[in-house]
Amino acid sequence: MPSSPLAPEVAPRSGRDLLEDSKLSGFHRRLTVYSAGGPFLDGLILSVIGVALTQLGPRWGLGGAWEGLLAAAALVGLLVGGTVFGWVTDRYGRHIMYTIDLAAIVVFSVAQAFVTGPEQLLVLRFLIGVAVGADYPIATSLLAEFSPRKHRGAMLGLLTVMWSVGSAAAYLAGDWMLGFGEEGWRWLLACPAIPAAILVLLRFGTPESPRWLLSKGRRDEADAVMKKVFGPSATAEDLGTPTQPAKFSAVFRGEYGRRTFFVSVFWACSIMPIYAIYAFAPQLLTALGLAGEDSSNLGSAAIALVFMVGCVAFLPVLGKFGRRPLLIASFATATVPLLLLGLLPGLPPVASGLIFAVYAIAIGGPTLLQWIYPNELFPTEIRATAVGVGTGFSRIAAAVGTFLTPIALDSWGIGPTMLLASAVSVVGVAVSVAMAPETLGRSLESCSAT
């Protein structure tokens, strides 16, 4: 196998559940950071369009419908990329696409700097969304299948934190790059190419998931990966019983179908308001009286950082209080601020800001669990497929919310817009109460079994 920057730093050991009970190593930390690059790029790519449109919209004479389409195009691409490449990842492996998808992001990001009209930008936004959507099932499945059970929640949860970091970076970059002149939006849309190119180089040589290799009957290759990562005494036998082959349709049938419904709905309901807020944060903050035209980007960066604080605050809780109670309690708490902002749109800016901050922090719980639950509830053979389906369904909702947000703001104002967001959140709470399982402390094999 090729040499890799993800070299083993784990002392040799053997025995049942070696991978599940291994100590957190340098390999695990680097794999987590490299995998988190995809969510970072997603946050960056989604948010730069909202900032770019503040300059590009007036220049091209775009109305709310066109702005909504351009903001939602990447989300529709995420639907296609997550669904299609989740299946591809389960069939052909995790590490093959682990670098190819990011290389595509480099190409499409640079191409955005040369568009001459909204139609061209719409196509490129869709294509870049496909590439980002492909990375979710690839990177999260690979990370989950190498993660020790004790640290799996935190390792997958960190990916969500990096999404917020990417979004904050977009607003800070926008505040700087739009100052380059009337063509500053071109530099801004192209800037994701830089971190994407760095991540392509860092990800080269990442080993294939030994769980996936074993599920395909490639025991010798699984043995080689286990020895490389865990030491010379480790073998594929330490992985337990391989999963049985499963078809794409398995995620829609029986118990797995029920789990797919739960994951898709709670994910969609938690992410729909978030994506709308991120994509149009400058406009929303101005409508709430929290920022003027000259400071809205910095205000948006501050909001993104508050979202990040919420995610970080819930990371330690993931390993203590269980997935189910965390999801229900934080989801319900996050619903209240949206309702208050809808019912009381004329509050003083300080009060609106505090209420908005409560929402941003409280939604950290459901946000962290968006990538943890689907990776824990499905077996190796269909894990990436399930993540892809959940990603796709949630992005349909996010695309609808992102498309409708500027139209709702123009037509109804901030109050009704926030009331709609709170109604979506209520649905998410109800589904979580009815269907959320508990997976804390269980191996991937046991919590994904029917």
What does this structure look like?
This protein is an all-alpha fold and 450 residues long. 74% of the residues lie in helices and 0% in strands. It is built from 19 helices and no strands. The model is unreliable at 1-16 (pLDDT under 50).
In summary, what is this structure?
The chain is mainly alpha-helical.
Write the layout of secondary structure elements.
Blueprint: H1 18-21, H2 26-60, H3 64-92, H4 97-112, H5 118-146, H6 152-177, H7 184-190, H8 193-203, H9 210-215, H10 219-230, H11 254-279, H12 281-287, H13 296-314, H14 323-343, H15 349-362, H16 364-377, H17 383-411, H18 414-435, H19 444-447
N-to-C CA distance: 35 Å
Average pLDDT figure = 84
Biggest pleated-sheet summary: none
Radius of gyration, rounded? 21 Å
Strand-pairing-aware structural class? mainly alpha
The portion of residues assigned to helices is: over 70%
- Inertia-based shape: globular
Oligomer: single chain
Helical stretch tally = 19
Which regions contain 5 or more consecutive residues with pLDDT less than 50?
1-16
- Beta-strand fraction estimate: under 5%
Number of strands: 0
SSE order, as H and E? HHHHHHHHHHHHHHHHHHH
List keywords for this structure.
450 residues, mainly alpha, globular
